[in-house]
Design goal:
three-stranded antiparallel sheet
Length: about 150
């Protein structure tokens, strides 16, 4: 797993909406929201712990796994081990407009058919080229089977 000790504060602060972590090395705060921890029916839910959720975000931020709209994307590891309760293998961290507002994220699956749940193919190719995603997992993302 990502070595958070060198880049961020991992001890959360409890706030009304969830657990706040950070800052990351780039200064971003992260909020593990209760909404994606099983408190709201119909929302995707993490199966990883809040600190591991933050680790995935911190790695995405540190490695700049972002698309043209500023959304970050993450994976638990290069082979896409599940990170959501429904077997989701990717995470999306939507762009946060306020510079001081904490980021948050949730598990997604390109297999849902929703375009918003898949990173652009160009980002996936970049992550493969950099050795951050396996080619097998990348093809599953691009063919919407992940």
């Amino acid at each position: 797993m990502y070595n958070w000790r060198t880049v961020s504060k991992r001890d959360p602060i409890a706030v009304e909406a969830g657990l706040q972590f950070g800052p990351t090395a780039s200064g971003k705060l992260y909020l593990s929201v209760y909404t994606h921890r099983g408190r709201v029916p119909g929302k995707s839910c993490w199966q990883v712990s809040p600190p591991e959720e933050f680790d995935i975000f911190a790695m995405s931020d540190d490695q700049d796994w972002s698309d043209a709209d500023g959304h970050y994307w993450g994976a638990r590891d290069s082979d896409g081990s599940p990170l959501g309760t429904q077997g989701e293998r990717l995470a999306k961290f939507p762009f946060t407009r306020g510079a001081t507002s904490p980021w948050h994220g949730y598990p997604v699956t390109p297999a849902s058919g929703r375009p918003s749940e898949a990173p652009p193919d160009s980002l996936v190719e970049e992550l493969v080229a950099n050795g951050q995603l396996s080619r097998t997992f990348a093809r599953k993302i691009q063919t919407r089977r992940a």
